[in-house]
Amino acid sequence: MTALKRVLVIGSGPIVIGQACEFDYSGTQACKALRREGLEVVLVNSNPATIMTDPELADRTYVEPLTPASVEAIIARERPDALLPTVGGQTALNLAVSLAKSGALERHGVRLIGASLDAIEVAEDRLRFREAMRAVGVAVPESGLARSPEEALALVGLVGFPAIIRPSFTLGGVGGGIAYNLDEFRELVVRGLSMSPVHEVLVEQSVLGWKEYELEVMRDRADNFVVVCSIENIDPMGIHTGDSITVAPAQTLSDKEYQRLRDLARLVISTVGVETGGSNIQFAVNPANGEVVTIEMNPRVSRSSALASKATGFPIAKIAALLAVGHTLDEIRNDITRVTPASFEPSIDYVVVKVPRWNFDKFPEADRRLTTQMKSVGEAMAIGRTFKEAFLKGLRSLELRGAADPWTPDPADRHDPEAFARGLAVADERRIWRVFHALENGWDVERLHEVTRIDRWFLAQFAELVATARALGDAGPALAPTAVAAARQAGFSGEEIARLSGAPEAAVAALGAEARIRRVFKRIDTCAAEFESFTPYLYSTFAEECEADPTPSRKVLILGSGPNRIGQGIEFDYCCCHAAFALREEGIETVMVNCNPETVSTDYDTADRLYFEPLTFENVMGIVAREREAGGEVSCLVQFGGQTPLKLALPLHRAGVPIVGTSADSIDLAEDRKRFAALLDRLAIAQPASGTALSRDEARVVARAIGFPVLVRPSYVLGGRGMAIVYDEGSLDGYVGRALADSPGSPVLIDRYLEDAFELDVDALADTTGHVVIGGIMEHIEQAGIHSGDSSCVLPSYLVPERHLDTIRDWTRRIARELKVVGLMNVQFALKDEQVYVLEVNPRASRTVPFLSKATGVPLAKAAARLMVGRTLADLDLTGDVPVSGTFVKTPVFPFARFTGVDTLLGPEMKSTGEAMGCGTTFGAAFARAQEGAGSALPASGTAFISVNDHDKPAMLRVARGLSALGFSLAATRGTAAYLAAHGLQARPIYKVNEGRPNIADAVANGEIALVVNTPLGRASFFDEKMLRRSAMLHSVPCLTTLSAASAAVSAIAAIHEGEPEVRALQDYHRHQ
After folding, report:
1. Which tens digits make up the pLDDT trace of 649-665?
2. Longest Cα separation, the chain
3. Nearest alpha carbon to residue 906 among 1034, 787, 1048
4. What is the CA radius of gyration of the chain?
5. pLDDT tens for each residue of 530-549
6. Residue of 439, 467, 466 lying closest to 454 (CA atoms)
7. What is the DSSP letter of 333?
8. β-strands 772-780, 793-795: how paired?
9. What is the pTM of this model?
10. Engineering a disulfide at 192: which of 175, 302, 538, 800 sits with its beta carbon 3.0 to 4.6 angstroms away?
């Protein structure tokens, strides 16, 4: 290979279902590996919430839309020698194919590395893959490609029912599904064709109920081949692997069967032609006769690659990057053993279980059935000496409170036996809990296997867990030490043993000690202890020998954020990583505690020590106790991982564990509504009228005093979970009843709802001297009533007068000093009728920290970590508020395409999964880039459809005039069209959905509408509006549901008309700060 000097790495863009932070992990590893090789790295990614877009990680960092035009402009500017697309998921792979086919790579003299164009197309093109496999004797399911509904129907005779529909070149199976009849088939085909970027679907023979396995493999140019890890899905074929509980290594394969899959995997990767990287290959095995078919292959680093890397300690993405630039596996040393080469296949002497995390609570109308289209938003990974231990640790890692406990019967299942049986046969996110309840209620393994098709071995393991739980209950408080030892080794927590038996937790701990069983820690070493491990990557179990070997140094435990979920995602992992980087630079030993396999924080070289453990009080205290045994101060950092570690602040403080930075009491003060309201009153700082309630009667009293509408929410939540705007007492009664049932004893928070207010977010830094620096004031583009995480925001503020910004700065400083904040603080403000209000204060890292850090060039989380261990702002040369050069917009990304029937209307409960960032010299240019980066590029021309409520009509005129001036034709519902005509604007009237045909949904489907502006009209028009918004989403037509967003879009379209702005690296923006 000709020597390379400069490589362009493409990231995966915003976090979406099917493509999450595992690609930040892989991209970060690749960038670090390439720079260590002496190569210059140019990075492009539109997601600011990533470590890989830190300006320090690459030589040139572009936060730009991941489109062919944008990436070609970067190539023209930076002149890279090669492009590496295999660490950026499906997005990067699709981009690479597009750039290669358009001739852009050839025009600029750039070559693809990591995978050739032909290898990508053979693996990704379903027809070519099928033919390639058959040519070498590898069995694949019967299938055919269709580019129209008619072509698809012609394939039904070939594959029969049920039939699998898989759209080409999509991620996470989006748009696909299982059809059991012609009606379902037609619906899925139409949807799949629209979702596929090449408008193509594979219609495939069903292998439902077969066992599913994955092999994570690597191959180099010298034809060295390794299997990094085998993975087995507990759920049978028919459920997307991202939605299945998976186990590594595979548990139910004989050695002969494993070797057969290994041989097939080698043949598949060689035939496809991947010779410089990693691949994931999926197999289905018929449990009746052992027949094997190959389902698909990903010629890139995948979601399973991150799991396999964390399960084995084998850094797949790093090694894939090194293979891509010419190394071979036998030349690369294993970081963990420092002896074995990468051609030495990992071997593990423990069991790893991955459990998906869903957020159906955010989408109550969604179809919760699990099929071939992925729906989970995150995952937890657990490690144990046995499958049972790892499985129970995995359930606890989900942080579902009582819902994660398989020993608590589901009342709904108990009262409806038929629904219970259906819930076993047709999987949803609660099926695994139903399996346990079935075993508790007398179902045997054989009967369960017939209904669920889950392998009998796994069901037998579950039955043993149920028997252990029953024995604990039967023994009662008079537990024997041997019973505690057996339960501990099976994976039961101390709290579970205490609850099941009725014995106090202290007594359970004493009985464990009597049985000479204690929590110890074992190392992940890639080689089943055959060689010494030099990296302290640890998990807990109950045995005698401990391998933790802590040092006597001063250390800080950084508590991570656990599995991704809406409201607590990659932004918090970013902050935890920055804490580790900063504290290491300060000479303090860092100890990371987390259970998310997708993240950079759980990479073995991010912190000095890594514990892959559930984020529970019991597990964290176990780690603290072991680390203390070597001497040296052990403290905890809880403010960077979101609500998960924050909930542990007070319990840890009471247990005598020092909390660095802002005290546990100050954290609780900010969360305690009454204490915090009193603080603001003492400071004479305005806040919306508010109150708390522990009953329906109390809630009515508070709401009457405040006045409807009110904003209601549970205590201690993140991402607006359970938040709602309530307009009357009847709705209030229903809400309070549900909230108190979900969280008994926790008050419901009730605030005056500030309609039509502007909202602003402020992130600030404070030190022990009381010095406060404003990191940035971000103005929300959507008005109050939409969760801050779902609103686009702009830095710097562009509409709020300076006098109000001065008030915001002053109040931020006063609140930080009063709370004695040390580190980061986020404050949310509202501006209504020329009055500023404080909505809430969070003395912790917020989800805007990464965005703000990328915009300003000041790594706020790093600075905060230093402040938390004693540095001052003066020490860090941060004496004034952080300046910003340019304009930056953050725009959310939503998962609505995954959930048929869900309305896309936004509200106070957060629904976005990720974000994109736009950079520019003007607001319009930055907003346009952010929209494009989020996958909802604004049109430059066409017909704009407008339908708004009466309240919004006067303000809508400015938007309509702006669109008309930009050359758009206008269309509207009859009422809006009449209003526009009365004010001199002509708009073509179009029927609402329930008024006749052709209606607005038809016009959208027919491609007649380029842009939709639709604000809620009320309950009477709910069906019409929902159908309109849904149609717009399915046909990729931008749909703006607030006038503030519509006004921003007008500015953005005007910027588009002025011409394509020049791409610019973050390093160039920061040079002018």
Report:
1. 999 999 999 999 999 99
2. 87
3. 787
4. 28
5. 656 667 899 999 988 899 99
6. 439
7. B
8. antiparallel
9. 0.93
10. 175
